[in-house]
Amino acid sequence: MQQYSSLPEQNSQIDASPKLLTTIEQLRAELWLESSLNQLQSHLNDCLLSACNMPQAGATEAEIYQTLVKDLKIALKTSKVAIALFPPQAAVGKVCYVSSSPPRNSQLPSLELLSKKRKKLRLRLEELIELEDLQHLENQQPPSAWLLFDNFDGVTSWLIIATPSIRSDGELFNASQAKLRSQLITRSVKHCSVVLAQLRQIQSLQQKSQHLGSFNCELERTNQLKNQFLANTSHEIRTPLSSIIGFTHLLLAQGYNPTKERHKEYLNIIQSSGKHLLALINDILDLSKIEANQLEVQREIVNVPALCHNVLALVKEKAANKGIKLLLDISPDVITLVADPLRLKQMLLNLLFNALKFTTTGTVGLQVIAKGIFVHFTVWDTGTGISKADQTQLFQPYFQIANAAVSRNEGTGLGLAVTQKLAEIHGGWVEVESEVDRGSRFTIVLPLNQQGAVGGNSDVVSLSSLSPLPIVPNSFIEILLVEDDLHNAKLMQVYLEKLGYQVSWVKNAAEMWEVLTKLDPAIILMDVNLPDGNGLNLVRQLRENQQYRMTPVIAQTAMAMKGDRETCLAAGVNDYISKPIDLPLLASLVAKYSKFPTSQEAGKMTIDE
To answer: Could you tell me which residues carry 4-aspartylphosphate (predicted)?
Structure first.
């Protein structure tokens, strides 16, 4: 079927009546219009299909503009078609797409447009054009410019068509042909605008799909890491629990009477396993607090050599079991440092345990040197080393290096993440140097001094500085213990009674009020979570009672998160201790608030084994 791609001309060869000729001309004109529009729509739809089927190499706005220019040029035949683009809120744009110019020897008349100021406008590539002129051409009759598209980025596009005032055969356009031309351009502009909007929607959906795909991949990776973390955590928890439950069962078994030395050995294992569990929980809580920007550090002047010797002493047994040599090298000019000693020890232990984990033979060392205003703590080893790929993920939470030299997945993959974040809180950072089969060097860089460092929370008691337990001069000091957990209550009651205190234990609020009618305790140890009430509400009620307004109350609770201490103090307690209960700290607090003489005044005692 023949397609018509130019304006219809009169067919002088047809010998018919004027009415028939008019009808034929009208049909030919309408056929030309619909054929031209169908051809343009088909080409533009092909662009959309390309964009849908090939997101990376599909059609773009540029190809749609080029298609429009080309098809209108063919349909209008003697016209010059161009598209100008304007940046957001710009008054001057640039001609970016234009149909080819007529040959120089062409008999076509010159194509020209006049600006608002009657100045000739040239439709050439890269030619600057003012928005005011296009708006002027848009308002002319017939118009020569059409607003094509205003995209989401604020860029506007204009279609410009310059048509000669006379046809190639020297005859003027008649009214019917001018009307057809106007319809073709108007409908082409409308359809192209719709296609451009659809293209933008397709591109937006493709971007969202890509983001969603990337998000899903990251989510899947995170879930895999967390699943691995839970599996490792479960393994780490079950291992010490096995020791605790197993050795406890052994000690309770009928007919088994271990020697005193063996009995003490088993208890040491149980205690060590319990401390391991607590350390694991603390690692998880530390990371949560750090990520929530809720971790507090207690800075003070640290004796660096003493702390380093203490840290190496803690890993000495593990190194000896693997036959690994430990080295310590501290520069003579490094004596003190302002930092949180507990957190600094935690960082160094994390690095040392990792070094021992991935070293089967050879040496693990700790080197401390000063460089300017910073101190460099370097833990090095002669172990398996770390690949470049793994180094990029070392400080990601839950990430663990797969290594054949390690018999099992030790730890939870949190140590390095916590170490890095603790260093940053201290105003420092962590550096890594490693080569496969050549060992590793992890360096914690900390500033020597930190603003506002010395001081801290005066209520925080350092366990290493606690004095030996005081002797109670008599057994008339009453302590009321409010605790619903049988085992915790038994532990504190036996311990405090061993120190000479009289301890009355109640399991809930009702029993507490009943006992208080018969007892005037020197101190109340208050659990926060009770079966029939909140311990902090009980403290508030006690403070409202004139008889107990000055009675010392110590909160002993499993509430150990950020702000829990402050919450308890605000309720009216005198002090706070978190579970698991540190018994020496409990004894120190009880001695403090029972107003006993100090240990120097009263002497010393120890608990029998």
So the answer is: 527
